[in-house]
Write a structure and sequence with these properties.
Blueprint: H1 3-20, H2 23-45, H3 48-67, H4 71-101, H5 106-115, H6 129-135, H7 141-147, H8 150-164, H9 169-195, H10 197-202
Length: about 200
């Protein structure tokens, strides 16, 4: 049985057991299952930024070297930025309309608001395009990494990779080798984490 099927069956089993287990039995188990499920999920999440950094850096740095002048990488980076801006604008325009047409259940909306520390009330949310553009460039990349803010992290890595292409061949190859090793190590780690994926998904 392949891993995908095992994860799918674990998901179905978790749904069935969670729905059918009596509350007096299920509630004492919740702290354990919650800890197991969140432990697996956090283990998977911890690999995301290093993996993206390795893939993005090596992809850009190597494509520039192969393209002889960086025109291909430059166009790819511009296309990536254009897609980011398009998807953000699409979400800003159409998600509020979609929520007007198909509002979330009041209980679910109240739970989300209650769990959002410091979030503004739904009626007070305004889109500030200037702040969004500023968020593309991190003032402190380590702060963005700590917060898991993907957009400024991706912007930094992409520009860093382009800057690395201006180094001499030896130093550029050293940086590419470093990020390539990070990427490969993260893929091994992801493989280990997915071995216990059925247990984490079930929990």
């Amino acid at each position: 049985m392949n891993l995908t099927l095992r994860i799918f069956l674990a998901l179905l089993a978790g749904l069935v057991v969670g729905a059918l287990l009596p509350a007096d039995i299920g509630k004492p188990l919740l702290p354990v299952t919650d800890a197991i499920g969140n432990l697996w999920l956090q283990a998977l999440q911890m690999t995301i930024i290093p993996l993206i950094a390795g893939l993005l850096f090596t992809g850009i740095a190597q494509s520039v070297g192969q393209a002889g002048g960086g025109k291909v990488a430059g166009r790819a980076l511009l296309a990536f930025l254009a897609l980011l801006i398009f998807s953000a604008l699409w979400s800003m325009i159409f998600v509020p309309l979609l929520l007007d047409w198909w509002p979330a259940p009041p209980a679910a909306a109240a739970a989300i608001v209650a769990n959002s520390a410091g979030a503004a009330p739904a009626g007070d949310i305004k889109i500030d395009l200037g702040k969004w553009l500023l968020s593309l460039v991190p003032a402190n990349i380590f702060d963005s990494l700590a917060k898991g803010d993907m957009l400024p992290v991706v912007t930094f890595i992409a520009v860093f990779a382009l800057a690395a292409t201006r180094l001499d061949d030896d130093r550029r190859r050293n940086l590419v080798s470093l990020f390539d090793a990070v990427k490969d190590a993260m893929l091994v780690l992801v493989g280990w984490i997915f071995v216990i994926a059925p247990l984490g998904v079930f929990a």
